[in-house]
Amino acid sequence: MEKTKSNINRRSFLKASALLGGGLMIQFSALAKFDLPAKSVDGINAFPWNEINGYIKITSDNVIKIINPNPEFGQNVMTSLPMIVAEELDVDWKKVIVEMGPHDSVKLGAQFTGGSNSMRMYWRPLREAGATARQMLMEAAAQTWAVPVEEVTAKAGVLGHEKSGKTASYGDLAAKASSLPVPKGVKLKDVKSFNVVRNSQKNVEGAKIVSGKPLFGLDYKHEGMLIAMIQHPPAFGMTFKSFDGSQALKMPGIKSVFSLKLYEDGFEQGGFDTRTFNDVLVVVGKTTWEVMNARKKLIVEWVPAGDVKDTMAGRGGKREVVVPGELENTADQHAKMVEYANKPAQVLRKDGDPETAFKNAAQIIERTFNAPFLAHNCMEPMNFFAHVTDEKALLVGPLQAPGWTEPTLVKVLKLPADKIEIQMTRMGGGFGRRAYGHYLVEAALISKKVNAPVKLIYSREDDTTYGIYRPMYTATYRAALDANKNLIAFHVKGGGIPEHAIHPNRFPAGAVDNYLAEGWQIPSNITIGAFRAPRSNFNAAAEQSFLDELAEAMGKDPIDFRLELLKRAKDTPVGKNNEYDADRYAGVLKLVKEKSGWNGPEHKKFSRGVAAYFCHSSYAAHVVDMTTKDGQPYVERVFSAIDCGIVINPDAATNMVQGAVVDGIGNAMYGGLTHKNGVVEESNFHKYRLIRMHEAPKKVEVHFIKNDIDPTGLGEPPFPPVFGAVANALYKASGRRFYQQPFSSPQPSAIPAV
Amino acid sequence: MIKLNINKKIYNLDADPEMPLLWVLRDVVGLIGTKYGCGVAQCGACVVHLDGEAVRSCVTKLSRAEGKKVITIEGLSENHTHPLQQAWLELDVSQCGYCQAGQIMSAAVLLNENKKPSDQDIDDAMAGNICRCGTYLRIREAIHLASEIQGKERS
């Protein structure tokens, strides 16, 4: 993303072109000559591009550049989204250059990385962009050659007219094409004929990554750039009363020390304006190390903030909310959850007559599942560059949702949107955390205050202790069985701090005659938000463990039991609004059953656990094979079956599923954030345990359902069911159920056996 | 002035000898391939070679590097041709990519000392490098592949 000055200017490039002969070959010989990676080139921005549409630019020398609209945080959209354009444009993928687009919702759409959304959101627009551009190039050829457009062909970047024998490169006609009217309703390719999409293509930034080229927000540099760090209160629920920055200011390299108010009183917060601390202290200086040292010299009097009023806008309209001032402790949070769990809750869905069914049950099974707050722990801590003047603002860095941050910047900076330029760098992880743009707003206000270009950097400790966490959750599941061990009623009542996780219309809703889902929540000052399917990853642990236990109580195989329920949901669904497709759900279970050799005697040496889940429009199932290693439970092998519709880039998709499995094992076994008097107790990786190499499986075998359904998303769906499959394998390994995450923590004792 | 040999180039630096090598590299020299992850030697994103040893540059004072040869990811090879870099690209290991320079630098020392590491050797040597995206399986595979490439290049 860094706009470095290229060592090739247009003149030397053209010279190189002339020397070598013209056309595509030349271009890429020139790139090779200057040792520029062919896929992602900053240096040739100087050349005159013919913009066919927002996603496609072509030079007269036939260099084809595809703009990736959506921020890249490791899900590989920098490669897979441009692949879709290249497919319909019909160009040789090897010769395409890819570039990250700036924030530009007019040309590049909604630009939001999150909710496993990239493919769902861009599949159609990018296909249309590619196909429309191809049509415009064909039209340009038809006009130039004075032949009917129906007789013009366009394949692999070459236009042709068979009868006259005329051919031209896309580049030859790009200028003319870019001036033509944009056709509507252009025909798209048959998905069965794809040759770029559905074929594995390498990460376009792979070479830059392994050679340490600047890619990330922390790598971005700007002339005269200063470094800033904030000092936030040490605990949730605290603020500063007074501070003395004079000692910090005397430290080497320090330019400025001040306090900063993020939002003015009454500021109407949208859903992604979440911020924990509205008032922070700021140290600005020359280098990161100097600023880190100076920050230690701040003398601050911190005090409890008490209850704080916030004004919320967005979904649900404008309203005042009170954020409680309590300095929270994890033990109290647990106690409070038990208290709330026994109170009446909001009914989210009710089918049939669950109360009577439970009253008449021969057997009731009731289990409670708990999970802690989780921190994102993106490897690249939060940071952003800002250069704000009275007239305009430039912001550069790692961000998932520029379209949601821009309106906030407009309000806070009092600048019109067209004077605010946001560029997105590659992100060192995101997982939902970087959808919350408070750190951009902080950077922008700091730059404005010191009147200089500034990079705001969070230390690891800042990043972990100022989080927008996955909430703390609990849920109690109850099942009623009749005398023949048939499931006659199902009840889930879930709560959380500060939100519950219940999806009332998901499986097994729709499969049970008498069904009740309820939710409650406890207000808190601990800020929460997106986290790789935050609610689903808890539900898939709790519900999928519970179903496993239920299957056992009913004397059924856990996969067969789920398939029976899904058959019921398909044949005679109970209620309306069932969110899932029972066939696709059953499909991944059947596939994982087959591929894992589910009941095969050859797998006896493993403790096997299975789970499946639907979220974000896609379906995933895993079989986890557990052994012990160094006396600890170890997931040695995993079989995964996924239905996400058409798989754009198979090897990269496999990589993402493997990563989700590792991430799932890690968070299920070790993840957790606790509080003492509002202070986060796990400030860095020595206390916040993340999964490491020796804890990762030896093998994760990934299988995709083959179908022609438009892509339904992959970033989140494989993650949640890992939790449940691990819990169920732990039961097989140990003979006891695991109800408390992380599973490596002490488990509640004296759970009665089924 | 402190004299440093980084990637076979001599730098005369006017910097605090207490400053961690990580920040010297990133903020003073301008080599940003070495990453900041935790600052407390827990994640391995900042691994560089100091006279051939893997060190965590976030806790290595500049003064300790004086007179020694520092190699960073930028200096590991010309044009990403080190067997590990080839293997990483061949197997398309990276997801977000942020930790990978540190992973490769740790693995490079392993491969120097152990031409044919086992899974166990890799697990032991790489336990100090966190990958939040969970690319561990491919990292393991890539180290094996690099070991093969290295063997072929030397034979």
TrEMBL record, chain A:
List the SMART domains hit by this protein, alphabetically. Answer: Ald_Xan_dh_C
InterPro entries in alphabetical order: Ald_Oxase/Xan_DH_a/b (IPR000674), AldOxase/xan_DH_MoCoBD1 (IPR008274), AldOxase/xan_DH_MoCoBD2 (IPR046867), AldOxase/xan_DH_Mopterin-bd_sf (IPR037165), N-heterocyclic_Hydroxylase (IPR052516), OxRdtase_Mopterin-bd_su_IorB (IPR012368), TAT_signal (IPR006311)
Give the GO molecular function terms: oxidoreductase activity
Signal peptide range equals 1-32
Protein keywords: Signal
- What sequence ranges are listed for the domain Aldehyde oxidase/xanthine dehydrogenase a/b hammerhead? 211-306
The protein's matches in Pfam families, at most eight in alphabetical order, are given as: MoCoBD_1, MoCoBD_2
Keyword Cytoplasm listed? The answer is no
Q: Does the keyword Iron apply?
A: no
* Protein's UniProt name: Isoquinoline 1-oxidoreductase beta subunit
In the record, what lineage is assigned to the organism producing the protein?
Answer: Bacteria, Pseudomonadati, Bacteroidota, Sphingobacteriia, Sphingobacteriales
UniProtKB/TrEMBL annotation, chain B:
The 2Fe-2S ferredoxin-type domain is annotated at 1-76
- Cite the InterPro entries for this sequence: 2Fe-2S-bd, 2Fe-2S-bd_dom_sf, 2Fe-2S_ferredoxin-like_sf, 2Fe-2S_ferredoxin-type, 2Fe2S_fd_BS, Beta-grasp_dom_sf, Diverse_Oxidoreductases
Task: Write down the Pfam families for this protein, in alphabetical order.
Answer: Fer2, Fer2_2
Under Gene Ontology molecular function, one entry of this record is: oxidoreductase activity
What UniProt keywords are attached to this protein's entry? 2Fe-2S, Iron, Iron-sulfur, Metal-binding, Oxidoreductase
- Indicate whether Repeat appears among the record's keywords: no
Q: What is this protein called?
A: Isoquinoline 1-oxidoreductase alpha subunit
Which source organism does the UniProt entry give? Pedobacter duraquae
